[in-house]
Design a protein that fits this description.
Layout lengths: L6 H13 L14 H9 L3 H12 L4 H12 L9 H5 L9 H20 L1 H22 L18 E3 L5 E3 L43 H19 L8 H22 L6 H17 L13 E3 L10 E12 L7 E18 L4 E15 L2 E6 L2 E6 L9 E18 L1
Parallel strand pairs: 3-4, 4-5, 5-9, 6-9
Antiparallel strand pairs: 1-2, 6-7, 6-8
Length: about 400
Amino acid sequence: MSGNLTAANVEETLKDFWVSRPRRPHRGRKIAGVAEGIAERYRIDPVIVRVAFVAMALCNGAGVFIYLLGWLALAQEDDEVSPVEALIGKGRSSTPIPLTVLLCIAVFPATGFFFDGGFTMVAGVLLSVGAIYLLHQNRGAVNRPVPTTTTTSTTDQVTTMGTGQEKTADTPPAWDPLGAAPFAWDLPEPGQAVAQSPETPPARRSRHRSPITGITLGVSLLVVAGAVIAGPYVEWLSPLRTLGLVIGVMALGLVAGAFSRGGRGLIGLVIPLSLVAVVGTIANFDEFGGGDRIGDFTDKPVAIEQVQDKYETRAGTIELDLTALPGSGTVETEVYAGVGTVQVTVPKNADVDVRCETEVGSVQCLGKQSDGRAPAFEFTSEGEDKLDGGLKIVLNVHAGLGEVVVNRG
């Protein structure tokens, strides 16, 4: 398979993965054999696969979501089809139908959590899919499943003789009706052509593949998992710095691969990650969207004292609804997001002093809109009632990379 990252090659790799996808073995399994099956299919250490699943499970459950999909989509080694294929009548699976139904039901909340689980969950799933794609692209030719062939016993083969009689393979030739010559029992009839078996080409010597790619991806997953766990306690571990650590690990893998002729699959991952890092550097995530929070946040205060001085997330979505506040008083707050969307809804009759800006992205701020590099607006917007003495809101909204939306509701 070609290493060029094109739509055709991606489609070809995905189709080939499905055709030759791993099977879940009975031996060595811990739960359903998904990790063991992947390790056996691609001839890698199963510990690496299990560590990867654990690391992704810490990313808001991304590893659990991928494992459930593997349980449903991968057949056991002695089954005809996977559990989900057996459920729709495509073949036989030893997985009980009730268990398959329960697994399918479990996937639905996991799917909802994937869409609502924020940046960490989505990144974990995408990283898992990318790792499986690169693994198959580089080791898809290793230990491919052998198609099963049916053979017929010679004692069951029946041939029709010229006299119209039927003769089994145990019937002696016509020139030896008594079958007295044991050496002739397997000889053909006189004049019958002897089928020559084609010569088997010499087996090609399998080329040794370097484990650099698998080891590097495993270490990268551990770095991501460690950053997710330690992020709330270590201020230095911002998303951008974590990305830099991952790129550094992959760069070391490429250097090691240069000496062992391995790690080429990392190139297709390092390049887009480096582009993201460049954009992140331009966006200056550390300035906009600091704090310890990673993920989505929603708030709808009903009293002025319930409004926080600052709402912030390193990566995710913040939705702040101020429409339930009383009609008088003064509110001042700031909203920050490093990567993601900030959406603030203010009352129709409130007077708003607002500043909206992003480093890279789009801004929709009370009727004003701008996109691109560092769009920003700062102005005062009167309420629709045009009256003095009502609710006044001082609002500062920032995003490093993403979208800022401020509207009236």
